Amino acid sequence: MAYEGFACDVLPAAARSCATGGCQHCPSRRHCLAGGLGTEETQRWGTLVSGVLNLAGGKTLFEAGAPAQTVYSVRAGCIKTFTLDAEGNERVRGFHLAGDVIGLDALTQERYPMHAVAVAPSQVCHVSRDELRQFATLTPALMNRLVDSLSHSLRSALSLAGDHSAEQRVAAFLLQMHSRLAPLPGRPLRLPMGRRDIANYLRLATETVCRVLTRFEQAGHLAVHDREITLRAPAALRELAQSLSLETPAAALH
Amino acid sequence: MAYEGFACDVLPAAARSCATGGCQHCPSRRHCLAGGLGTEETQRWGTLVSGVLNLAGGKTLFEAGAPAQTVYSVRAGCIKTFTLDAEGNERVRGFHLAGDVIGLDALTQERYPMHAVAVAPSQVCHVSRDELRQFATLTPALMNRLVDSLSHSLRSALSLAGDHSAEQRVAAFLLQMHSRLAPLPGRPLRLPMGRRDIANYLRLATETVCRVLTRFEQAGHLAVHDREITLRAPAALRELAQSLSLETPAAALH
DNA sequence: CGTAAATTTGATGGTTTTCAAGCCATGTGG
DNA sequence: CCACATGGCTTGAAAACCATCAAATTTACG
Fold first, then answer.
1. Per-residue model confidence (pLDDT) at position B234
2. Contact B57/B120 with Cβ under 8 angstroms?
3. Which of B85, B102, B250 lies at the smallest CB-CB distance from A113?
4. Residue A160: closest C-alpha in chain B
5. What would the pLDDT profile of B179-220 be if each residue is shown by its tens digit?
6. Residues in B touching A83 (Cβ below 8 Å)
7. pTM of the full predicted structure?
8. CA distances from B73 to A18, A53, B13, B130 (A)
9. What is the phi/psi pair of residue A127, to 5°?
10. Residue A46 CB contacts under 8 Å (≥ 6 apart), including other chains
11. Residue B25 phi/psi, 5° resolution?
12. Mean pLDDT, all residues of chain A
């Protein structure tokens, strides 16, 4: 079940703060929601974080339909969110890396609309939905981060909506992962998730993702070693992915 | 340009009210944003409507990037909204029928993110963005309609995001049009838009839409006469379209 | 009535999926 | 330590599906 080993894995805020020095010294604070906040506000933010949860790869964070009282901020690792259709087929909706927030839907809804599972060993911070909501109304900088986060989700959801070729999708995915994981210059990009999840997310067959990767490798655009990928010609990938990002002049509902 | 013949085509609110008896007697009031309001509130709503615009088929209502001071409520006809990508290719984002509202983005943004063009002869009501925003904060029923309208847009946008077969897309489209246009029992469904716009909206080739329609006709699911379509076996279509609607347990961002 | 546009049908080709098999790493039990 | 099973990844061959090109037919409209 979801919270297997919960009690053992959660460090109370005090212990965590003691162990890590609090949010001010969190290694992923720059990417975190709290990133744009001042020192004082960051401390206040730290009091919202009621604990840190360690999740082994494959473990469930929460399930669709469960009451949503908590928003999670990813501190390390990778969480995938997905839905299940009527036939029980998985449908990956997104990957959440360090600094990403999961469960923002919870701000306006009572239940999680998706399942959330750790794809790699991960750490996530608990944040009370109600306290976050309250704090956000008092802190414009935080509210801006929340809105940014939501509109970013929407944009990336819409960018997958178009009919793009397999190469365009994979190229865009690799570039996005590269910018989000930001490996040190010269170091390879290590993808936290497997080919099957990537393919599902991009709405492609697993084999197609493989083939596109080998095609890119043969073209000299990158080097593949299992889940480690070295981008050799990011410009070529960017050219391929272009139409995926330029497509939406502004965030577009209708 | 957008407002060609604007001055001639707009009836001032007073004249319109005189001609039609006001929003209380508008033929599409049940589908309108004002639909859920009480008599008194509907009258107040009527004062927000500053005019009615007649648009011939093919005429532009507004262009992407234009300052968004007005929200439009479709009274009759059909307006399509679309974006243009870098190469100038059109991309249909939605069709707006009687009762739909166009430009709700304008509630939070300064400019229209999309182009809006009448696909068939249409009538649209002008509503001031600022007055609508003000009125909505005072009228919970109206605010609910606004949120419903937005979440409906989001859901339909996401339902197109999936990778579905041409038959699934066309079936879902026809069912949606059938329920929104609600032809009298036994009467055919008259589509306001052409095959090209349908195909573009569904991310298919025009020819594919044609072929699917003839395939449906040969299967006995419907009868096609130009833009008039009679659904003979809605259940068969519903079965095909199922995965498109059941896919999202709840409105899902992430 | 005639021209342009929209719709339909046919033939062809390309991209992706599907089915099938092999490879490789990891882990387990003997 | 090895045999073996497992699951993820990769590659190959065939088929499905849809887009594209081309042309016939119909419809719309000045």
1. 95
2. yes
3. B250
4. B161
5. 999 889 889 999 999 999 999 999 999 999 999 999 999 999
6. 247-249, 252
7. 0.84
8. 57, 49, 14, 15
9. -135, 130
10. A13, A17, A22, A23, A24, A34
11. -115, 10
12. 84
